[in-house]
Each structure stands twice: as C-alpha cells, then as structure tokens.
Structure prediction request, 433 residues.
Amino acid sequence: MIHPGREDLRPISHCGGSQVTYDEYPMLPVEEARARILARFQPLEPEVIPILEALDRVLAEDVYAEMDIPPLTNTAMDGYALRAEDTARASAEHPVRLKIVADLAAGYVLERPVQAGEAVRIMTGAPMPAGADAVAPFEQVEIEGDEVLIFKPYPQWKNVRHAGEDVQKGQLVLSRGTVLRPQEIGMLAALGRPTARVHRRPRVAVLSTGDEVIDVTDPWQPGKIRDANSYSVSALILKYGGIPLRLGIAPDTIDALTAKIREALDLGADFILTSGGVSMGDFDVVKKVLAAEGEMHFWRARMKPGKPMAFGEIQGVPLLGLPGNPVSSMISFELFARPAILTMLGKKKLEKPVVDAILVDPIKRKDNRRHYLRVWLEEKDGQRLAHLTGDQGSGILLSMVRAHGLAMIPESLNSTPPHFPVKVMILDWPEVA
Ligand code: AMP
Ligand code: MG
Prediction:
C-alpha cells in the first residue's frame, strides 16, 4: 500500500478474511436507489419565523383570513363619491350639479353621510362615505365654485371596490404545504400575519475525504488537489434551501472520519454528506466507521457519472456518501441529496424540470447505464438543440460549468445518431432555450 502505517486502508478483499468483490454490491436502477434513500426522510418539525425569512419555505399550517380584504368598501379612482341615482339624468348638454361637501384622503373615514345632491372629493383607497355608491373620476367632471358638474349617469358601484372582494373573513387563503413565493409573503402581510409557521431548514453536514484533498485556502503542494466538492455541495445545499455545516476535509483514516462524523452529530446535523472514499478501496473506511455506531449500505447506481454510493444512518441521522469525482458528486447530489433536502423542507415537487431537446452530437457507449450528459441549450429555427459541453469525464468540472442541463440517455441505448431526440433535466434555465 502507498499509505504507510495505515492498516485500515488495506483493500476490502483483505479485510475479515473473506474475499469481497465489487460485484457483490447490487447495481440499482437510479429510481430504486432514490426511493430507498427518500424512504428515510420526512418533513422536519415546524418553526415560527418572520414572513420575509419564510420565502421559499413550506407552510406547516392552514392560514384563514381573520378579516375582509379590503376591510372597507373604498374608491378605486381619485374623483367624486356621489349617489348614483343623482346622476341618472346627467348628459353632456345638461350636466347634473352636486355640492362638494367634504374632502377625503386615503386612510381616513368620513363620519358624515352623503345626502341627495352632494358629492365628496375622494382619493383612491379612501373608504366610501355612507350614502355614496359610485365615483366620478376627476378627468370626467368639471368644477365650478363649490359644485362638481357630472356629464353622464354613473351606475351603482361604478369605480368602487367592495369590502372582501379580494379575500373574505373566514376564508382559507393559504393551505398547509404551500411553498411561499413573494405573492404569498405579501398575502400574509395583507392578512396581518407578521410570522409564518413553516418546516425548518435541514442542517446538512458536508465533509470531503482524501489524503490528497486540500482546502482552497491551503498552499498547493505536489500530489494534492483542491477540495472542489465541499464547496459545490455546500452551494447546492444553500441553493435548495438547506443549511450547510462545513466540516472540512478528513484524511483517509478511520479516526479522522470518525471524529468528523461525531462532530456532525454534535452539531445536530439532520443529514450528513461525505464525498470521496466510496469506491472499493476506501469504502471500507466509511463502512468500518459507521458499522461502529450505525448502519451502512453500499450500492452502485446504474448511472454515469456517479456509480458508487454509500448510504446509511448513524445515530438515526442519514448519511449519503457521494463519489469523489467532482462531476459525479454534483450529479449524485442532484439526483439523491436534493430530493431528500426538499422532502425535509416539506416540499412535494422533487423533480427538476425536464424538457425535450435534440442532441446534436452522436454518442457511443456500451455500459447499459443511464448517462447524464452535460449539455448547453440553444433555440434554433424553432427547435431546442442540446450540445455536449465538451469532455464528459467525471473529473471534468468544466463540463458542469458550461452546462444548462443533463441529457438523459436511457440505459437501453448504446449509441445515438446525430440530432437524436432526448430528455434534458434542467440544472439552471439558460437565458434563451
Ligand atoms: P475517490 O472517490 O475518493 O476515489 O475519489 C475519486 C477522484 O475524485 C479522485 O481523483 C480524487 O482525487 C477526486 N476527489 C475526491 N475528493 C475530491 C474533492 N473534494 N474535490 C475534488 N476532487 C476530489
Ligand atoms: Mg479518496
């Protein structure tokens, strides 16, 4: 071995006497691996937080209106509140003259009722005075002294907004399970609710493994590579609504990994994500660490990039071991960790959007796995075209940097001709496509 003094790093086939081969671990279809993982997750308990912090969170309560919106019948226009019946005989030649008896701004209530032959100068949003049942807008009237001239009949309730026309007292306005968008946040404010009861955000521990892995802030040394994964994974956690708990890098030893996982548990992690060390040689480290305190499964998913995957739990906290290659870890996150995080947030829609596209480049392969090819999209002559983003190796992070989505090539296809129709899972919508 190239790791002097690291007894724990002997290949798995030398551990415990029996010969263990890679093939003993089942190769699961992506959907089955996903279903087995998601079976371990449920929405987290609710918390009550200020509504602006609740953007993109999921309501854990039904919200009923405690009063009408708008609360009072009010004018939709700046103009003159009047009695509609007073205008019945008005015409351009014979305008009706009404006496202006008051001036009413929005935010105030006029106690004095409007009598026959009277009008009140009124601003948009001001409550209609008693007796008035229509509004003549400024631009349709003329003023002479203390009188307003009305040139046409106004039907009852013309330019008037009724109390409760948006929301009625007692109405169920937002139901449990609603994802709060800006319009829902505005509605909560309109309903007089400064806080909302929402599922709390999952705390997701992130750690990278590997003797060769160093942090972006460490000076570079020969033989080492910079830790891309804990950053891309932390960013994905943030993007989908979780709270990353960054635990740094564990060298490939049982002690180091154990210490990091204990740290994650002490921090109250709801989910632990590791990267690297899930291929055959390293997997034993993860398994040994977790066997001591929890339960560990190891699978392979019938996909590329990404294939080896460790999943299990430790003291009741699920742990997903992502592959070490930077593209594999990101794609495995999108397929398996993302829906788990969304489930904890209380979300029901777990799929990324999928669109039809024409894959311009031909492909050839022979491994019967589902391929997730990184593509960029463009709209051309009414067609959505997908182009490979270059070298598709699982260590080629630039293939993700250039990608709008993942073209999914079914397991059954070993080659596709140029301009082949495919489904593309959108990672981020491009500006045009
Ligand atoms: P492993 O799954 O640990 O065998 O790692 C597979 C490949 O991914 C190796 O070339 C590693 O050096 C690389 N790798 C592992 N962890 C990281 C990381 N955090 N950032 C970038 N590359 C990594
Ligand atoms: Mg490794």
